[in-house]
Design brief:
The chain is mostly helical. It is 69% helix and 0% strand. The chain has a domain of 86 residues. It contains four helices and no strands. The mean pLDDT is 90.
């Protein structure tokens, strides 16, 4: 029996079932992909807000930097965009070296940034 010889009601029912299956499958694929890649993209967007000083060195002793680094350390898995994160980690390392002996109230933020730095390095498989 060919498609054209089927009654209209049966063809509509078949097309409806096919549409529902495709719609459900496409939603599962989209949701799975979002859960897989969206955290990495979000972490990159967050890392772009890290402040630099006039010499283009990351200011590691700021509370905003510590917060952003902790969020990124929590979000990333280290499987994607390794080259980007290696560049960011090199900038953080440079900032940590520059502010190593800075004391005062900003030392707390320096320590938080340093902990997040090491956590990200562990996720990247460097340490």
């Amino acid at each position: 029996m060919s498609w054209e010889s089927l009654p209209i009601e049966l063809r509509v029912e078949i097309l409806s079932i096919r549409y529902d299956l495709r719609y459900t499958a496409s939603n599962k694929i989209q949701n799975g992909w979002k859960k897989y890649i969206l955290p990495e993209v979000t972490a990159i967007d967050i890392s772009l807000d890290i402040e630099l000083d006039s010499d283009e060195i990351i200011m590691v002793s700021l509370p905003q930097t510590a917060n952003l680094m902790e969020i990124c350390a929590h979000i990333i898995r280290g499987k994607h965009n390794r080259d980007y994160w290696l560049v960011v980690m090199e900038g953080i390392k440079e900032g940590l070296v520059m502010d190593e002996y800075t004391g005062g109230p900003s030392a707390v933020y320096y320590n938080r940034t340093e902990k997040a730095y090491h956590k990200i390095l562990n996720k990247l498989g460097i340490e």
